[in-house]
Design brief:
This protein is an alpha+beta fold. The chain folds into 2 domains: 78 residues, Roll (Ubiquitin-like (UB roll)); 157 residues, Alpha-Beta Complex (Aldehyde Oxidoreductase, domain 3). The chain contains 7 helices and 16 strands. The strands form 4 sheets. A 5-stranded mixed beta sheet has the order 2-1-5-3-4. A 5-stranded mixed beta sheet has the order 6-7-12-14-8, sandwiched between helices. Strand 9 and strand 10 form a beta hairpin. 28% of the residues are buried.
Length: 282
């Protein structure tokens, strides 16, 4: 049977249009599939969470209906089911500032999760400040000299040391060494915040040094130094140094792993930051 040329042309055209439409539809579906994920964020994991996940950083593609810190938690749990218990109780930070359940995130944000914390420099002539994460031994004399001005009459120093024996219920724990880890950029920012808080409460404090060791430290080695200088001993240097170490253990993201003959354990604190712990500009 011979088809009329005109009819044949129409059939061929119709077939082509069908294929064309199908291709267009496939393109639409493909585009919809791509739009299923609204944004990508960069996730950092520290201490226990890093160990469980087996990695310290990853990129997550979030569904279009996900837009809060809690949504990121859920996506992380779906990716690493073993993280569920730890990530639900973890502290969150977005772009190096504390973040909370309903806080909105944006495409490309850096979101960090870490347990409660365990546990650079800037200099102005009249109020020198030093903020540093150090992988070398702390030189106390150099730091005292750095925060001393011609008007200084007193310097109070707190120095933490790796303890080899810890008395606990049930006996004594023998520690071989400690391993310190930090969310470094946020840690420096929070050290500066601690210094600002010190100056608001004790305005006569002159110099402030906050130096935290990172890496593996042996028993007897210095772990941290906080030093505050003032014109006289009654102008806040004692109180400021005490406040500095207490506050550091609350908001500066540094953790320690205790290593002993019985194994290794990340030490987690009991303080959970609140919105008031965010940096208050000015």
């Amino acid at each position: 049977m011979i088809w009329p040329k005109q009819l044949t042309a129409k059939c061929v055209s119709a077939t082509f249009d069908c294929k064309k439409n199908a291709a267009v539809n496939v393109g639409i579906i493909s585009q919809k599939q791509r739009n299923k994920y609204r944004m990508e964020i960069h996730v950092l994991l520290f201490a226990t969470l890093k160990d469980i996940a087996g990695q310290s950083r990853l990129t997550l593609s979030l569904p279009e209906n996900a837009h809060t810190v809690d949504d990121v938690r859920q996506a992380l749990i779906e990716r690493f089911p073993a993280l569920e218990a730890n990530v639900k109780s973890a502290i969150a930070a977005v772009n190096e500032e504390f973040a909370f359940a309903g806080d909105v995130i944006q495409d490309g944000d850096e979101v960090a999760f870490f347990p409660p914390v365990s546990g650079g420099s800037k200099e102005v002539k009249s109020s020198p400040e030093i903020f540093r994460l150090a992988d070398e031994p702390i030189n106390t004399d150099d730091l005292i000299a750095a925060i001393t001005t011609p008007a200084t009459g007193a310097v109070c120093v707190f120095s933490g040391i790796v303890r080899g024996k810890t008395s606990k219920t049930g006996g004594i724990i023998h520690t071989s060494r400690l391993e310190y880890e930090a969310y470094q950029s946020m840690a420096i920012a929070k050290m500066k915040q601690v210094a600002e808080e010190i100056r608001k409460q004790w305005p006569l404090v002159q110099g402030i040094a906050i130096v935290q060791r990172i890496g593996v430290l042996e028993v007897g080695q210095n772990t941290i130094l906080i030093a505050c200088s003032s014109g006289h001993r009654d102008q806040g240097c004692f109180e400021a140094a005490r406040y500095g170490i207490d506050r550091l253990k609350e908001i500066v993201p540094v953790w320690k792993k205790e290593i002993s003959v019985d194994g290794a354990t990340w030490v987690e604190g009991g303080y959970t930051p609140s919105p008031t712990d965010r940096h208050q500009a000015g």
